[in-house]
Amino acid sequence: MSHHRPAVALLCAASLALSLGALGPLGARGGAAAVAAEATAVVGSPDGPDAYFPRDGNGGYQVTHYTIDDRVQPSTDALSGRTTLRAVAGSSALSAFHLDLRLTPDAVTVDGEPATFSKPSGHELEVTPRTPVAAGSPFTVAVRYHGTPSRLRSATAWDGYFHQPGETAAVGEPQIGPWWFAANETPRDKATFDITIRVPTGQQAVSGGRLVSRTVSGDWTAWRWKVDEAISTYLAYFVAGRFEIRRTTADGRPVLYAVSRQLSAKEVEQAFALLDDTPRILRWMESRFGAYPYATAGGVVSSVYTGFALENASRPFYSWFGSSAGTVVVHELAHQWFGDTVALQRWRDTWLNEGFATYVEWLWQEGHGRRSVQDTLTSRYDSYVPSSTFWDLQVSNPGPTEIFSTPVYDRGGMMLGALRCRIGKAPMRDLVRAWVDRHRDGTGTGRQFRDLAAAREGAGLSTFFHTWLDVRERPARTRANGLTGCS
Ligand SMILES: [Zn+2]
Fold first, then answer.
1. What is the Å distance from ligand 1's center to 431 Cα?
2. Of the candidates 407, 456, 414, 466, which has an alpha carbon nearest to the alpha carbon of residue 433?
3. How far is CA 84 from the centre of its chain?
4. For the Peptidase M1 membrane alanine aminopeptidase domain, which residue ranges apply (predicted)?
5. Same domain, yes or no, for 79 and 194?
6. Residues 288, 177 within the same domain
7. Interval between CA 222 and ligand 1 midpoint (Å)
8. Residue 189 maps to which CATH number?
9. Are 324 and 417 members of one domain?
10. Nearby residues of 274 by Cβ (< 8 Å), 6 or more positions away
11. 181-212 pLDDT, tens per residue?
């Protein structure tokens, strides 16, 4: 995510890998003498694996695919729909399990059979199938729901789902799924998506992946999108309203841009001009970080003011940025590698997403005749005097309300610039490439990056990382800290 300047607050994302084998003990039911299958059936945990946002995600299963079919009225923000998800139970049979859903549930089935359900809290949907789901087995859940998503506020500091009369943007980080579909909302549980959004005929709905079909039936038109690569739930999204859509092909892949027609004609052209840079930026990134992870590309510019842009997989979301766009497109496209295909395992590591996206912005500038990474690093370092509160945040564990604070971006990016200074440009390039290659289509942690760097470049780096990421003071201007005498 990148915040509009002047930066106030932002979003980007990550997660916890559900260990299928580690979900057992929660709410175990059944007497010792009961039939074996029933005795071992448990209630899947309502909590996910992240200490920062424990209500996001659930225990006992993993989702492999979501089919979402929502009807959205952009004039009023009324939403009704159905999510059908395919999942696989963990090592325990499930007598009941949870999904994350802020909307009002109307009906639930499990493998086609009606199931009982309840809303123990605003965030949770508890589902009890007629018979327990067997351990390790695939199962299908269908949930019907309705509501007015923009009225559903988050219990955390991070609200997603934005609506203004005539236009809706379902975008957010670290949470957004439960506002428009029934989700296992953890970045660790990646799944493929088949997303149909029905809007009044004459309006448009845009999401990630490829546009499969647009079907008019009377007053409503169904826009169907498919994301064929597994992505984290917060990276799925839609916008709905009046959008101009332009399609092209670049480097053999379909590219689709959409810009809100609530913007002026001049602004619409400015937005398309900015989006048009996408293929060139992706080409440059592929030469550095390896293959672009998705089969489609593009971008969406909404007139809804969110205060941030977001790296939605394959087609980032941009709130109208006016003249302050800067390198926001570079930033969000960098996240396709750093944040999307290599997703966070835990939200405390947002520096891994935002530090890299910031560093890549600096690399882009350096590679295009603008300021060098070293100059940017030095000037940022100098701009934050030792007494600045900028240095007070522990970037490696900022706390749930600070995961998108300026130091997570800037100090994270500075650390990577300093690392390049310390180990040299070519080893840095190889290290970054090795990081992406190792964690592509998966997740990573800050600790894993530190360990990989130390394994390649020497254990002495552990002090370097500690100084930059853990210590709440300004690193000294030394060669060991990558601030002088670059290799
Ligand atoms: Zn970002």
1. 21
2. 456
3. 21
4. 325-468
5. yes
6. yes
7. 31
8. 2.60.40.1730
9. no
10. 301, 318, 321, 325, 329
11. 999 999 999 999 999 999 999 999 999 999 99
